[in-house]
# Entry
Amino acid sequence: MIRKRSSSNILPNTLGELELLVLEALWQQPHLDAKMVCSRIPSHKQPSLNTVQSTLERLYKKGLVDRIKNGHAYSYFTSVSRSNLLGRLMGDVIHLLHDGRLETILSSFVNVAADLDERSLNDLEALIARKKRELGEGEGER
Amino acid sequence: MINTVGTFSAIWLVLWILLSILFVILYPLVRPRLFALHPRYGSALLLGYWTAPFLVSLLSTLFLFMPTVETLLVNTHCHSDCQSHVPLIDSAGLAWFGFSVGSIVMIFLLVQFVSTMFRSLQLRKQFNILGKAKGEYYAISSACPLVFTLGWWQPRIYVSDGLLKSCTETDLSIILQHESAHKERRDNLRLLLARLCSAILSGPLARRLMTDLQLMTEQACDFRAAEKHGHIAVAETLLKVKRLLMAKSVTVPFSSLAFAEREVETRIMALLKAGTRISPRPWQMGALGTLAVICLLLLISPLHHGSEWVITFLTDSPLHAH
# Structure
């Protein structure tokens, strides 16, 4: 059960743009200090060193990066893989789609409610096959 | 000034509520007719139906307060000085009440809009950074077999690796065709518009409206994909993706979506019986639009007199002096 959240934090695994860019830099090259992370963020979005340091601190508190002391500075590396994070995000999307909180933002090909059992799916399959045969016969007669 | 704004707010809100009640009462009669239409037209008319109480109430109240329109559409009548006039609440208390309630409603709608927009942007940023652009879609490295379109004005399609691995080329083409239809039609924006315009409805009523609109929207996109690949192929792909979701246990226990029951089954049945859906001719749609405009214009005079009657009744002052 997902507890109600404020609109600004609708996804339990919500991350800001800079947090994601920092993670991206660390996925590409682990064990970087804050200065190196800063230099690996795309130039048009390059934040100050202080901002990157506080972002790394936030990610560390969220358990998404880990660090080891390396001289005077910390060396950071991710403690979650990209696919793991995406998996969590997709899980949140599925739940929010189901309870209607994403219905005006996102449309999915097939709904995620477990509203059909195996038997119903088999019946539908048989129905489609019958229609296909009918159409095939119709074309054959013509 | 406060009297004019307060009266405007009060008339608009009361009219919005009354029209919403009327449209809710009439919906069981209208629904089967809309679902008998080709989903392209059905979805447009359904959106029109549910946004109508908000739009008609707002437009007619605006017309009511425009002296030129009011002179043309309201039959001549006099109160004390026989001048052109608009209905006005004389009591400062009532005017302030109307203004306050109107402001609260407008702020509520604005907050809803902004917060949904913020949510949408935030989600999009996350998926854009974590996904990889591949032509017309973004690939997301996740085992969940999901595909969705995200955003309002410039929506983007996101497909998971889990789905890409399990689909044939034809399946993927059908799925992308369906999602591209969502993109072109700006369906997320339509749903948002419907949600905001029907904000006055709540609970099962609001859920029913959104579910019907979503279903019709999905059907419209299914039919669009079927134009290229055929109805049977689209039905097969729908079934395949549903099976994939169930096999990978991605589905959520069916509980709260009372009206969304068996959505995929309804869509497949619609595809198999595609020939029975009626496509209205352009002149029929034009006639319907014209009729709606005429009804709107004809509403102004009774609205003017009705408002004056209610104001007289509430403030106990003899506004009418015919």
Observations:
- The first strand of chain B starts at residue 132 and ends at 134.
